[in-house]
TrEMBL record:
Residue span(s) of domain Methyltransferase: 170-261
Molecular function per GO: methyltransferase activity
Classification via InterPro entries: Methyltransf_25, Methyltransf_Superfamily, SAM-dependent_MTases_sf
Organism: Usitatibacter rugosus
Protein name per UniProt: Methyltransferase domain-containing protein
Amino acid sequence: MVALGIGYFRAEPWTIETIGIDDDGLRVSGWVLPPLAGLPARFTWNDRPFDAVEFPIARDDVGRHFLTRAYSAASGFACRVRASRAEIFEREFLRIEYGFHGRPKPFAAANAWFFGDPDRDPPLPETERLVRVIGRDDSFQFRLGGATDFKRICAIAARHGAPIGPGNRILDWGVGCGRVARYLQRVEGVEVHGADIDADNADWCARNLRGEYRSVPLMPPTDYPDGHFDLVYGVSVFTHLSQLAQDAWLRELARITRPGGTVIVTTHGETAIEYGGGGLEANALRKERLRKEGFLVTSANDQIAAAIGNSDYYLNVDHAPWYVRRHWGRFLEVVAMIPGAIGVHDVVVLRNSRTSIQ
Ligand SMILES: C[S@@+](CC[C@H](N)C(=O)[O-])C[C@H]1O[C@@H](n2cnc3c(N)ncnc32)[C@H](O)[C@@H]1O
């Protein structure tokens, strides 16, 4: 019996809204929800303190969104430091982190945001492609979120015995226009694959990123051989599938992952409900319904309807942990569930516990 990782990776929401880099150095701003009022926040860049930090700054907009969180209206921050561009990108990614004095960090990567040097970046996809994967035209969040999700997937994979490195064959399932794969493709010695039902976005990746990218049908099978991948990850894919499509794809992921291989995917659950705005009562009702039913279709989603020529397939759905354990466990071994590990998504780590390819 494997202990589930619920709770070891509980991150409070915070976000970066701007990163400015010029001859004066680095400026970063955003908001962070303090777990308790009056705790001094500590912000760092590449593990070093900033020269100047303003916190808290009044943020009525954040207060209105997080009605259920105390102190959310006093959550703004602005930091600056004199630093050269070479220092800012001395590691592969600029790392911005916050912590509260005296509060142990459960898993550092969850508290950090990462940002790649724009000069090293592949081209950015066009507006309509961004909108299909993140719902808005925001190339800064596309890059910040892509680098951060990539680093968190790396941390989770390493923590669960599947470090990403040379010799790995990895599939980004639901690759979109390469928000995460654009950083995976930098890792030397990794064989990068990406698949998506949005053929136009898969084609953009094939033209602009290193790796093998292809479109796949709405329902499996794919052309990938049995046991082909060491690791498959899928960010925000199971958050959009009906139970019928979910089960077919769980079976397919189990088939194309090698025995002992790892699958890391995200779901929406209580974290997304809590951080999605809404009042105490509405959130409590939705959580209660999810706890009872396990799987909920919350709404239709027309973001990719035109691209896939189908307006029924893509949905918004929520999963409860007990449902994932019980139901998904029939296809793959559920190794860990980590609330809020990737944005407002919970992460599910699965293992193909077959000992041989069938
Ligand atoms: C919310 S977007 C996320 C894209 C990308 N993973 C990211 O994090 O930027 C969901 C993506 O999953 C794709 N998708 C949905 N169902 C899929 C399936 N059954 N197989 C492969 N891709 C799928 C969509 O076309 C879309 O590109």
